[in-house]
Specification:
- The protein is built from 15 helices and seven strands.
- It has three domains: 108 residues, Helix-hairpin-Helix base-excision DNA repair enzymes (C-terminal) (Endonuclease Iii, domain 2); 114 residues, Endonuclease III, domain 1 (Orthogonal Bundle), CATH 1.10.340.30; 125 residues, Nucleoside Triphosphate Pyrophosphohydrolase, CATH 3.90.79.10.
- The chain has 374 residues and is of the alpha+beta class.
- The model has no long low-confidence stretch (mean pLDDT 90).
């Protein structure tokens, strides 16, 4: 009975502090929880500015578990800013292959070259200068500044916005940039000066592990549940408020895995736009029949020995969706196409070279191993 009375008194004190101090009162319970529940992640074990930066860029739009092996491989091959600045683009894209959103890594290299040219290869311990680097916005600058340099700047991502929206029953749209800026200002005023990096990581960790999206928070394990208005009112699933997403553009494609006895056909995507500069399998718009594919290849001077249906596949980008059918095609010989032919821009490589030299986007992962079995 005494323990229950003490627990209730503690909860009442927390609520009073929250009413009086606002966001400042969440620091102690949040950091205590973080110290006991934080995940062991490779970039946390050695939080140098470079490692924090690369990890944060990789983690954009990508799950933590998926990032781990990529991060380790990237660090082994490109251990510092100078190495990143100097590496050739195709090696860089190959290291990133499978993570998607390839402009992230191109901007990473552009920023590395900025750091080499403007800061002698040393990442600046200055929030405003970090914001001036290519591909670094307010969230990433806040993460680097606080985690690597212990500068009290917030790092506000979707996890943080979700936690605070539920905590305060905040009806504002979290997609509104002005709302994000207001939250950043509120958090900056409330951050503990002695542990700003841990505070930011604790907020993100709470959103990733406990205050989950899509109406499934694990409130019983939340260190802030005594303060959370949405939990008190049973309205966790009502927050955060979001705009209705626009429907994606759907594109149908027929993927052609074309090879002869020794080589495989690829083509390079344009330098700008979706998957810019990556290598892909040739394709035709729409879902084509085997007869249509045979006619197309014949018109372009290729003699088909065998054609095999492959399973359908789907890949979802942020605003676009590919619905793919595919064929595995063995031809007599891959020869350079005439200038007027569609296949004039195809290149022919040994299949094994796709593992090291030719970055193929994860959009084609359903087909990227098939050609080795011919």
């Amino acid at each position: 009975m005494e323990n229950e009375k003490a627990r209730r008194q503690n909860l009442d004190n927390l609520k009073k502090n929250f009413m009086f101090e606002g966001l400042k009162s969440i620091s102690n319970p949040l950091l205590k929880w973080y110290d006991e529940n934080r995940r062991r992640l490779p970039w946390r074990d050695k939080p140098t500015p470079y490692r924090v930066w690369v990890s944060e860029i990789m983690l954009q739009q990508t799950r933590v578990e998926a990032v781990k092996p990529y991060f380790e491989r990237f660090m082994e091959r490109l251990p510092d800013i100078q190495a990143l600045a100097d590496v050739d683009e195709e090696t860089l894209l190959k290291l990133w292959e499978g993570l998607g959103y390839y402009n992230r890594v191109r901007n990473l290299q552009r920023a590395a070259r900025q750091i080499v040219e403007e800061y002698d290869g040393v990442m600046p311990a200055d929030h405003s200068k970090l914001m001036g680097l290519t591909g670094i916005g307010s969230y990433t600058a806040g993460a680097i500044a606080s985690i690597a340099f212990q500068i009290p700047k917030p790092a506000v991502d979707g996890n943080v916005l979700r936690v605070l929206s539920r905590l305060r029953c905040d009806d504002r749209l979290i997609s509104d940039q002005k709302v994000k800026q207001a939250v950043e200002a509120e958090l900056e005023a409330a951050m503990p000066l002695d542990r700003p990096g841990d505070f930011n990581q604790a907020m993100m960790e709470l959103g990733a592990l406990v205050c989950l999206p899509n109406g499934a928070p694990k409130c019983e394990g939340c260190p802030l549940k005594a303060l959370c208005l949405a939990h008190e009112r049973g309205q966790e699933t009502d927050y955060p408020k979001k705009e209705v997403k626009k429907a994606r553009t759907v594109e149908e494609k027929t993927i052609l895995i074309v090879r002869d006895a020794d080589r495989l056909a690829l083509r390079k995507r344009p330098a700008k736009g979706l998957l810019a500069g990556m290598y892909e399998f040739p394709s035709l718009p729409g879902h084509r029949t085997a007869e249509e594919v045979l006619e197309y290849l014949g018109e372009n001077g290729l003699r088909v020995l065998r054609i095999t249906d492959l399973p359908e596949s789907k890949h979802i980008f942020t605003h676009r969706e590919w619905l793919m059918t595919a064929f595995l095609i063995l031809v007599d010989e891959l020869e350079p196409g005439l200038p007027e032919n569609d296949i004039a821009n195809w290149i022919y490589v040994a299949p094994e070279e796709t593992k090291e030299a030719y970055p193929i986007p994860s959009a084609f992962s359903a087909y990227s191993r098939v050609f080795l079995s011919v």
